[in-house]
Amino acid sequence: MIxxxxxxxxxGIAANRGLxxxxxxxxxxxxxxxxxxxSAEIPAREARAARRDPPCPPPPGGWRHxxxxxDVDLRDRESSGPIVHLAIFRPSPEQEVLVVAATDVDAxxxxxxxxxxxxxxxxxxxxxxxxxxxxxxxxxxNWRNWRLESFGTGSDQQAQPFIAAMMFRVxxxxxxxADALPEGLVRLEPTLSPx
Length: 195
Description:
The protein is an alpha/beta fold. Helix content is 23%, strand content 29%. The protein has five helices and eight strands, in the order H-E-E-H-E-E-H-E-H-E-E-H-E. It has helices at 6-15, 74-78, 105-112, 129-141, 172-179; strands at residues 23-28, 33-39, 83-92, 95-102, 120-124, 148-155, 161-167, 186-190. Strands 3-4-5 form a three-stranded mixed sheet. Strands 6-7-8 form a three-stranded mixed sheet, with helices on one face. Strand 3 (83-92) and strand 4 (95-102) form a beta hairpin.
């Protein structure tokens, strides 16, 4: 960072209770940033929406009260078969509903509804397990080159899976790769981004 005052950086870090964060506004060149403004005020990240309303209509009698009791091997089934992604929705503090994005909705309903009466919602997945695995393979292969910080699978308000990838900045190569993927499959979340 060109023009960053070291004392201001230290003061900014101290203001953030030693978390090590400062906000920088400037002009980004090849491998440097010409600092115009340095601040301890960190822009708020976009809030993640709470998963309250399952994307399925409630069953007769409404959603069951109580916590979802998951089989030990249910997460294992997520990596094979029709289950693509699992998410817990909470219609109220006393209710949990397992929402499953699946490639074969009927098969998952037959398999899980006896174990989760009035606590199961199954929706057709926009993506397949193979598509998600392929994205993971590319991210693993480019971990260092793309300066990835982390990545993982999440889901939106409709329980549709996506992969969030956090990195220092989005490179042209990464953007070109992401643009060729089905819309919504990957969310690139750079640390460094235009104001």
